[in-house]
Design goal:
The chain is of the alpha/beta class and about 350 residues long. About 35% of the residues lie in helices and about 15% in strands. It has one domain: Rossmann fold. The chain starts with about 45 loop residues before the first helix and ends with a helix. InterPro entries: AB_hydrolase_1, AB_hydrolase_fold, Epox_hydrolase-like.
Length: about 350
């Protein structure tokens, strides 16, 4: 089996039609505009996600470079005593992927969960998406909305962005938590097994072909593929629920979602974590599910070579998204670690 992207939650595609008879490309009918056929009568992502927010969490919007950005915010019951937290989702996910974490982490601080431009309920303009674009979004979000140095907590691509901002903009960060950090936005050919390199090169060609790319996206974002992908990458199978499938599927029906999908998966990989880690000067916690097939724990174990003061914790039996698979354990680890490092700082 070849995965379209080992960092993309909603994608697990066998490239052989013989393995998936449902994948048949119909003739192209004019140029591709980046819009998808929305065959679903389900409510929009904004309304669907409203049912998933904890009671203490609000949904809000912020305009960034002319685009509407969605985020969730949870307020503590008392006056915030600690630096705020910003939660950063991975590719294909949204703020709702932190629905099991945001309220629990807000005991003594304000907590935000941001939708990246192009994902969740945020706008999906036709742009060249990149790690640099989201880095700029996060820096501006911290400056304009959070308005204080913050703890950055990210999963997968969100963890890589947290690492980038921690390395490049230390004045915006008080501490950083990486959860199964991605090695790049996309595959680097030299990091792929030799046997898969021609297949990935062919797929890149398909993604750049109008008409074919749209039909490929319609197949890749099907609920069946989302469900199968989650079962492959979640170590805790009980966490793979229909609620989670809907959470990931619904934003993919928005106009512009297909163009975002193609833009991201044909983008440059960006900086390697190993080049960023030595630049981080704030406290760093690295959490890693040991059953992750996309970002194997072996790479995560090397992070302390590049950041000797970082704390690394292997999470037994968990996969690519430990915060969603075992939120009770992950929330407790983050709270205890922050209590320790903030106590030292104070």
């Amino acid at each position: 089996m070849i995965r379209l992207s080992k960092y993309a939650l909603p994608i697990a595609v066998f490239l052989s039609p013989e393995r998936h008879p449902s994948f048949r490309l119909s003739p192209c009918r004019g140029p591709w505009t980046g819009r998808i056929r929305n065959k679903s009568s389900r409510p929009t992502g904004v309304r669907m996600r409203a049912d998933l927010k904890p009671a203490s969490t609000a949904e809000a919007y912020w305009t960034w470079r002319g685009h509407r950005i969605c985020y969730w915010v949870a307020e503590p019951e008392a006056t915030p005593e600690r630096p705020p937290i910003v939660l950063l989702h991975g590719f294909g996910a949204s703020a709702g992927h932190w629905r099991k974490n945001i309220a629990e982490l807000a005991a003594h601080r304000r907590v935000y969960a941001l939708d990246w431009l192009g994902f969740g309920a945020s706008a999906k303009p036709a742009l060249p998406y990149s790690l640099e674009l989201w880095e700029a979004q996060l820096v501006d979000f911290c400056a304009e909305v959070v308005a204080a140095p913050a703890v950055l907590i990210g999963n997968s691509i969100g963890a890589l962005e947290a690492l980038i901002v921690s390395a490049h903009h230390p004045e915006r960060v008080t501490a950083t938590v990486l959860i199964n950090c991605a090695g790049g936005l996309t595959h680097r050919p030299e990091e792929l097994p030799l046997v898969t390199r021609p297949v990935m090169a062919a797929m890149q060609m398909v993604l750049r072909m109008p008409g074919l790319a749209e039909r490929f996206f319609d197949f890749a974002r099907s609920k069946r593929n989302i469900r199968n992908t989650l079962r492959q990458v979640y170590g805790n199978a009980e966490a793979v629920t229909e609620e989670l499938v809907e959470l990931l599927y619904t934003p993919s029906t928005d106009p512009g979602a297909a163009a975002v999908f193609v833009s991201v998966l044909t983008a440059e990989a960006g900086p390697r974590p190993e080049a960023l880690l030595p630049l981080v000067r704030t406290p760093l916690l690295v959490l890693w599910g040991d059953k992750d097939p996309w970002t194997p724990i072996g790479r995560g174990r090397t992070f302390t070579r590049y950041a000797p003061t970082a704390r690394f914790v292997a999470l037994e039996g968990l996969g690519h998204c430990p915060h969603d698979e075992d939120p009770q354990q992950v929330n407790a680890m983050i709270r205890e670690w922050l209590k320790a490092v903030e106590g030292q700082a104070g």
